[in-house]
Amino acid sequence: MLYMCGWAYFDPTSETPVFASMFKIDDQGDIKYFYTFGDVHTKTTGGNPNAPVVTSMTDVCRAITYDEDAGLVVMALEVMSPHLRPSYTSYKAYSDQNSDVVIILMRDNGEIIKGYNINFGSASISMGVGGNSLFML
């Protein structure tokens, strides 16, 4: 079995917006389950509130690991989607374009157990979670 994570395009032809994604694949190449995390939403730009623009929230799964003994999968996601960011409305004015981190714990069968959000509130920063940076699970 392999557990893979990264991102998936909502519309592959335009390559936007991006959802965090993960899947489990068996030794025969059959996908056992596939999840996407994130949402597409609209924002207004400039001074015209009647001109909504669909924006990419660029939710990405940056790390995944599997604990064989416990049968648990852990993922680290870099997220911008409001529904993946608790209390988003209280700090969106400061960090709408910055990312938060979500840790997801799930069972081997695909059942999601818990999710933990690490947000930066009004700090207006992103951690810059990347391929060779913060996370090593």
Spell out the key features of this protein.
single chain; 137 residues; mainly beta; four-stranded antiparallel sheet; three-stranded antiparallel sheet; 9 strands
Provide an overview of this structure.
With 137 residues, this protein is mainly beta. It contains one helix and nine strands, in the order E-E-E-E-E-E-E-H-E-E. The protein has one helix at 88-95; strands at 2-11, 16-25, 31-37, 41-44, 52-55, 60-67, 72-79, 100-107, 112-118. Strands 6-7-8-9 form a four-stranded antiparallel β-sheet, with no helix packed on it.
Could you report the average pLDDT, rounded to the nearest whole number? Answer: 76
Query: What is the topology, as strand order, of the major beta sheet?
Result: 6-7-8-9
Q: What fraction of the residues are assigned to beta strands by DSSP? A: over 45%
Strand element count: 9
Fraction of residues in helix: under 10%
Can you tell me the residue ranges where pLDDT is under 50 for at least 5 consecutive residues?
131-137
Radius of gyration: 16 Å
- The helix count comes to 1
Helix-strand blueprint:
Layout: E1 2-11, E2 16-25, E3 31-37, E4 41-44, E5 52-55, E6 60-67, E7 72-79, H1 88-95, E8 100-107, E9 112-118
Antiparallel strand pairs: 1-2, 2-3, 4-5, 6-7, 7-8, 8-9
A few lines on this structure:
By secondary structure, the chain is mainly β. The protein has one helix at residues 88-95, and strands spanning 2-11, 16-25, 31-37, 41-44, 52-55, 60-67, 72-79, 100-107, 112-118.
